[in-house]
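Thread title: Can someone regenerate the structure for this chain?

I was given the following input by a collaborator and told the matching structure tokens would be attached. They weren't. Posting the sequence so someone can regenerate them.
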Amino acid sequence: MGTFSVTIEIGDLQGQRYETVEAMVDTGATYTVLPTALLQRLRVDPIERQRFEVADDRVVEYDIGQAWVRLDGRRRMDLVVFGESDHAVLGAFTQEAFGLAVDPVRKRLIRVPGLLM
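Best answer:
Regenerated them for you:
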């Protein structure tokens, strides 16, 4: 499929302050991963630690919290992972919350209907 990035905005719990980040779109990642420093600036607090399996089959633990995500002119309260690097990843949970899917040919996100089956 190849990789591509999208611009998203991350907001504090009150939805008052936002910061813009470039996030790599990753359908293989469950949650959106954001730099811990960004979340700390926005005063997003961890709500718990969660276990995750990473690409090399290791199991690691990271803090998760809640933050506003703005994308495509819309916003959602979302679960986010406190990442160790400066890179942001837009995970599948966020993509589905916004009703988006990957167009692998044009390397973009497209709106799709939700499923209630």
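Residues 51 and 61 are 4 Å apart (CA to CA).
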